[in-house]
Amino acid sequence: MYREKIEAYIDAHKEEMLSDIIELCKIDSTKDSYRAGKPFGQGCFEALDEALHIGERYGFTINNYGNYVGTIDLNDKEKQLDILAHLDVVPAGDGWTVTEPFEPVVKDGKIYGRGTADDKGPAMAALYAMRAIKELGIPVKKNVRLILGTDEECGSSDIRHYYSLEKEAPMTFSPDASFPVINIEKGSLHGRFSAEFEASRELPRMISFKSGTKVNVVPAKAEALFEGLDGSDTEEFAKKFEEELGIRFDVSAENGYMKIEAYGENGHASTPWKGKNALTGLLALIEKLNLAECEQLEKIRALNRLMPHGDWFGKNLGIAMEDEISGPLTLAFSMLEITETGLNGDFDSRCPICSNVENTLKPAKKNMEDNGIRFDTETMNPPHHVDGNSDFVKTLLNCYEMYTGRKGECVAIGGGTYVHHLENGVAFGASMPDTENHMHGPDEFAVVDELLTSAKIFAQVIVELCC
Hints:
Blueprint: H1 3-12, H2 14-25, H3 42-57, E1 61-65, E2 69-73, E3 79-86, E4 105-107, E5 110-112, H4 120-135, E6 143-149, H5 157-165, E7 171-174, E8 177-178, E9 181-185, E10 187-196, E11 205-211, E12 217-218, E13 221-227, H6 231-239, H7 242-245, E14 248-254, E15 257-263, E16 267-268, H8 278-288, H9 295-306, E17 322-323, E18 327-328, E19 330-338, E20 342-351, H10 357-370, E21 374-375, E22 384-385, H11 391-404, E23 410-413, E24 425-427, E25 430-431, E26 445-447, H12 448-466
Helix pairs in contact: 1-12, 2-3, 2-4, 4-12, 8-9, 11-12
């Protein structure tokens, strides 16, 4: 019902939708420090302000929840369906080639720029689905609310704030991943660890190490400073390991010290093998250098034993496991800072349904502490599972099949989406299953036709669930 009208409407508004996406993606909405009235910084505030402006311009009722979350309502009727999207983005990072991160462009059927796929493009696809229903005059008996958050990438405190004020809708989907329907999301263990040690003056020695921007991002860059190493010898030595480690090393002088910079590729922590981890690559190189023995070096060796370069499944940490429903546990060593007297680090582990405190957190803690590293994490995030046979999920799958001709099925993922803590929430779109859109990496893009198809599917879902 209404399919022809929906398709015609979305196709007719293609350029307008792309224009709105471009305006949103020009804004660097990486989380920043608090300012009065701007809980996640200026960029997130501007992105939410722009999105709500777009929604109001199209005649929708908008609400702003303290600049944590904004909402756009289809009507004022009984709550039925929430669509949950986010406007914050991960840091731009290096390695962009098609355009600058916040200068979005349409090229070869794709729209490039940070946030085009995650999650500003999908958010606008959802808004245009609602706009189609509204402007086509399709009679709906219940409300659809587009919820726009601004802290998904850094812990979802925005949504906790929102749901402390509002109840969940009976059904929620988030276009924060890919089609068909993601009804199982792994749990997670955000491992924080630290250690202290005596400073050593023996040469050669490492002065400092730093890598990582966010715990859920495989780091593309790492750097370390050294005293007492020969730069030319070290550069030649480092080059020998570039192919083996898949990391590029640059050696230079800085303020009387020698600096080694490692360059890999960003990736999402749920699929760490898709990135090239500069952090673990540089640690692996450092252990091979001829440094003087000290406690700091002992800790570096311990980290290399526990989370070596290329171990994406937690085998060396003693937590490797998998189950038939949700797959293997994964691990990304994503943040580390080392000084002359201590270290602080983080890893991101995505944990299958069979994982729990006893078989995951406690072994990780024991193995860390057996190596002289304090494990500072006491809790895990549980997995999320919605019944794939529910009427809600079946409706989503049917609409997906209707507009794509592909088989609709439920899948499990390692990445947590925005609906992870919602009782009846699933991820649904907005990219197709075989699209690699460089989410969280350089040259992020969304396929234009996929955004248009997503808007059509979302509009059909509204018809099926709310009319």
